[in-house]
Amino acid sequence: MNSFTTMRRDLDARWQAAAPRERLIARLAAVFIGLLLLWLIALAPAWSTLRKAPGELDRLDRELQQMRAMALQTQALKQAVPVSAEQSVAALRAATARLGPAAELTITGTQAQLRLRGVPGGALAMWIGEARQGARARPQEAELQSGPQGYSGRLTLLLPAAAGN
Question: Where, by residue number, does the polypeptide cross the bilayer (predicted)?
Answer without folding.
Answer: 24-47
